[in-house]
Amino acid sequence: MTKAELVLKIKKFVPEGTEIYVVDLLAKYKIQLKLNKPRTSKFGDYRSPVRHDNYHRITVNKDLNPYSFLTTFLHEVAHLTAYERYRHTIDPHGKEWKEEFKQLLKPIVLHHQLPDDIIAALKQYMHDPSASSCSDAGLMKVLSRYDRDQKQFLEQLPLGSLFRLDTGRVFRKGKKLRSWYQCFEQPGNKEYRVSGISKVELVVKEVIIPEI
């Protein structure tokens, strides 16, 4: 595939004007990019080259909005560049990875015309990258404004609500545990933990009054 053909293909998934930056990264680091079907557990992942193979592999969910797609892609490229520098001697989302991610975000923030709220959220994240980008509530909430479905976040539902994930599984919302919620799959009441910034569909609104 020629560079021009790849640019046209990538253009469908990323914000206008950023496709050249993405394609240049694909070429520079010999990345095989796979567009995955939607996954509720993750937006993307990175795999380092295997024996007798010089290619890095990155997957990104193809249903993401352009801003989430770009951020996820750069998140995974940061794993790649951190691997190139440090191999497996660092924490996956430690300070070294965060610095790599910040450097990859800089050209986007400084030289591309993105919506003001996206730029502000990325700048805030770069200033204080206290978490993995895909678990940073502030950044994720801003990126989700551009989703087509506009579902609610789990954290917005009342205690005791029944909700459905994209997988079709139904849960009852329980108490908050830091950034996660104790939830119980229905039927059967098996306990799971679900992130408060998971996008969910409300099934039944049933508020439980906590005991005093």
3D structure, described in words:
The protein has 212 residues and is an alpha+beta fold. The chain is 36% helix and 23% strand. It is built from six helices and nine strands; from the N terminus they run H-H-E-E-E-H-H-H-H-E-E-E-E-E-E. The chain has helices spanning 3-10, 19-28, 66-86, 95-111, 116-127, 137-144, and strands at 31-36, 44-47, 56-61, 152-153, 162-164, 170-177, 180-186, 190-195, 199-204. Helix 5 (116-127) packs antiparallel against helix 6.
Quick recap of the structure?
By secondary structure, the protein is α+β, with helices and mostly antiparallel strands. The chain is built from 6 helices and 9 strands, in the order H-H-E-E-E-H-H-H-H-E-E-E-E-E-E.
Helicity level, as a percent range? Answer: 25-40%
Strand order of the largest sheet: 4-9-5-6-7-8
Helix/strand structural class: alpha+beta
Multimeric status of the protein: single chain
Can you summarize the main beta sheet?
Answer: 6 strands, antiparallel
Number of extended strands: 9
Distance between the termini: 65 Å
Topology summary:
Elements (H helix, E strand, L loop, with lengths): L2 H8 L8 H10 L2 E6 L7 E4 L8 E6 L4 H21 L8 H17 L4 H12 L9 H8 L7 E2 L8 E3 L5 E8 L2 E7 L3 E6 L3 E6 L8
Parallel strand pairs: 1-3
Antiparallel strand pairs: 2-3, 4-9, 5-6, 5-9, 6-7, 7-8
Task: Give descriptors for this structure.
single chain; three-stranded mixed sheet; 212 residues; 6 helices; 2 domains; six-stranded antiparallel sheet; SH3 type barrels; alpha+beta
